[in-house]
UniProtKB/TrEMBL annotation:
Protein name: aminomethyltransferase
EC number(s) stated in the UniProt entry for this protein: 2.1.2.10
Positions of the GCVT N-terminal domain: 11-261
InterPro entries xref list: GcvT, GcvT/YgfZ/DmdA, GcvT/YgfZ_C, GcvT_C, GCVT_N, TrmE/GcvT-like
Catalysed transformations (reactions): N(6)-[(R)-S(8)-aminomethyldihydrolipoyl]-L-lysyl-[protein] + (6S)-5,6,7,8-tetrahydrofolate = N(6)-[(R)-dihydrolipoyl]-L-lysyl-[protein] + (6R)-5,10-methylene-5,6,7,8-tetrahydrofolate + NH4(+)
PANTHER family: AMINOMETHYLTRANSFERASE, AMINOMETHYLTRANSFERASE, MITOCHONDRIAL
Family to which this protein belongs: Belongs to the GcvT family.
Binding site for substrate: 199
Methyltransferase is among the record's keywords: yes
Species for this entry: Pseudomonas fluorescens
NCBIfam families: gcvT, PRK00389.1, PRK13579.1
Keyword annotations of the record: Aminotransferase, Methyltransferase, Transferase
Enzyme class of the recorded protein, top EC level: transferase
Residues of the Aminomethyltransferase C-terminal domain: 289-367
Length: 374
């Protein structure tokens, strides 16, 4: 896609002003890094606070007395009993249990749900919602109306509490309406870095003023997509389209934890989502392949698409995400391998430029998550 056809977030001019290197991402012109550089941006987020522009993500509001019940028919997650002021991770599944997208769902109260979906999937997600539940609740896309900022890192709470002291009382996955600089925002204590932090939905017209105010705080640096990727990889978090897709079920993607207990085969509201039978059969009988963590035993980074082989040289899987972990101090990867090879410490090899790079199957997250649970 040529740059003149790329979409721009409300912070685009600010990224240019800050000296960002811009790249096409999910149809948008996005900052991959700033003059600080990916390694320092990554470490700054771990040590203090990083500000990310994630306005390319899709924000959608569902309104109506049946909204929770309707949405629950499309995801393997408990939405009906999601408490007001809380957020939950969810997935849209297809008829075979494959993952159409992963998303966050928050209960705003007053029969309102707030969804954040992936940038590359937002149009198809909207169409999916309209097709299946459009007659049961009001579906309001906020794609142009709102921006989304992520303030991540151990100092995030100190910084945001200067603008709104009440955020300090929030715990991981809580969601609230908060006034920031006099503007009504939605704030969740969550993120995609493994660190404590917040995601802030702000009207598009007010996004730049809020971003500038946060960047003016001494603890905060602007952080690009490069460090966002290395941070989420160290946290063992999936990236849609890479670590899961329509050919991958939640069981294969090692996301059984995300299927709420009431929606499982023995739960109070078992099934009822697309592909439930297949997902339950896999949960019961196992799967042929699974997503696992991998630690290369040399300094060579192992990238997405690299084949994974066993001792005999037989291909038993492939890498879905890989790179260098600045906090870990070495390369790391995730991949899908045949079920016989998923035990921790299993020795495997990746083929990188025709050479075998030794790997060990590793637990995830690679770097401990530091969410604030109170």
């Amino acid at each position: 896609m040529s740059t003149e056809h790329l979409l721009k977030t409300p912070l685009h001019a600010l990224h240019i002003e800050l000296g960002a290197r811009m790249v096409p991402f999910a149809g948008y012109d996005m900052p991959v890094q700033y003059p600080l550089g990916v390694m320092k941006e990554h470490q700054h987020t771990r040590d203090q606070a990083g500000l990310f522009d994630v306005s390319h993500m899709g924000q959608i509001r569902l309104v109506g007395a049946n909204a929770a019940k309707a949405l629950e028919s499309l995801v393997p997650v408990d939405i009906i009993d999601l408490p007001v002021g809380m957020q939950r991770y969810a997935m849209f599944t297809n008829e075979t249990g494959g993952i159409l997208d992963d998303l966050m769902v928050a209960n705003l109260g007053n029969d309102e749900l707030f969804l954040v979906v992936n940038a590359a999937c937002k149009d198809q997600d909207l169409a999916h919602l309209q097709k299946h539940i459009g007659d049961q609740c009001q579906i309001e896309p906020l794609f142009e109306a709102r921006a989304l900022l992520a303030l991540q890192g151990p100092a995030a709470v100190t910084v945001l509490a200067r603008l709104a002291p009440e955020v300090a009382k929030m715990t991981f996955m809580q969601f609230a309406r908060v006034k920031l600089l006099g503007v009504d925002c939605f704030v969740s204590r969550s993120g995609y870095t493994g660190e404590d932090g917040f995601e802030i939905s702000v009207p598009a017209a007010n996004a730049e003023a809020l971003a500038r105010a946060l960047l003016a705080e001494p603890e905060v640096e602007a952080i690009g997509l490069g460090a966002r990727d290395s941070l989420r990889l160290e946290a063992g978090l999936c990236l849609y389209g890479h670590d899961m897709n329509t050919e991958t079920t939640p069981i294969e993607a090692s996301l059984l934890w995300a299927i709420s207990k009431p929606r499982r085969a023995d739960g109070a509201r078992a099934g009822g989502f697309p592909g439930a039978e297949n997902v339950f059969a896999q949960q019961q009988g196992g799967v042929g392949r699974k997503r696992i963590g991998l630690l290369p035993q040399e300094r060579t980074p192992v990238r997405e698409g690299a084949e994974i082989v066993n001792e005999a040289g037989e291909i038993i899987g492939s890498v879905c995400s890989g790179g260098f972990g600045p906090t870990l101090g070495g390369p790391l990867a995730m991949g899908y391998v045949d079920n016989a090879y998923i035990a921790l410490e299993t020795p495997l090899w990746a083929i990188v430029r025709g050479k075998k790079v030794p790997l060990l199957v590793s637990k995830m997250p690679f770097v401990p998550q530091r969410y604030y649970r109170g």
